[in-house]
Design brief:
The protein has about 210 residues and is of the alpha/beta class. The chain folds into 2 domains: about 130 residues, Ribosomal Protein L4, Chain: A; about 50 residues, no CATH class.
């Protein structure tokens, strides 16, 4: 697959051959879905907690004697059917972690990249260099490239000026290519990637 390479002025300066093993496979929808569900589940903290009758404060005294009152026998005012009592079968802290083997994770990434490439939502830029952090310049760059909706930028290494320039744009996320995830690929309309990032991605997933 050949895609045009553009510069920061928005002009086409050449073409790049993308690896068919990474950007040209038949997308595996089920694996992409499983990878996305796994990532969302692993992001959950699992710190929710409710108190059982043994954990609620109070209720240590028997509210009335066992017999002779005409009322139902009660041992504590913190039983579940009392107001202010404990919760039965409520949520308690637990881990939501899901496991997925490496081959399936990489297949999901290759599938998501192939979807972006086939839908012409993959934009390759020759290099992304900014001398200073300017949000206005970043917004102008995206406008020149015709990227008016949400954009995921993939860089080969850390670039503070680029990251700071994009930080105040709510529809833009800057990510290093080595930290690529299915959630990010599917969550943004366009993927803008530099030549160096493409080489990194093909080296990892190829």
């Amino acid at each position: 697959m050949r895609v045009p390479v553009r510069d920061m002025a928005g002009e086409t300066v050449g073409e790049l051959d993308l690896s068919d093993a990474v950007f040209g496979i038949e997308p595996h929808v089920a694996v992409m879905h499983q990878a996305l569900v796994r990532q969302l589940a692993n992001a959950r903290l699992g710190t929710h907690d409710t108190k059982t009758r043994s954990e609620v404060a109070g209720g240590g005294r028997k509210p009335w004697r066992q017999k002779g009152t005409g009322r139902a026998r009660q041992g504590s005012t913190r039983a579940a059917h009392w107001r202010g009592g404990g919760i039965i079968f409520g949520p308690t802290p637990r881990s939501y972690e899901q496991k997925m083997n490496r081959k399936m994770r990489r297949l999901a990434l290759r599938s998501a990249l192939s979807v972006k490439a086939s839908d012409q939502q993959l934009v390759v830029i020759d290099d992304l260099v900014m001398n200073e952090a300017k949000t206005r310049e970043m917004a102008a760059l995206l406008d020149r490239l015709g990227l008016e909706s949400s954009v995921l930028m993939l860089l080969p290494e850390r670039n503070d000026n680029v990251e700071l320039s994009a930080r105040n744009l709510p529809y833009v996320k800057v990510q290093r290519a080595t930290n690529l995830s299915v959630r990010d690929l599917l969550g943004y309309d366009y993927v803008m990637v530099t030549r160096g990032a493409v080489e990194q991605i093909e080296g990892i997933l190829g």
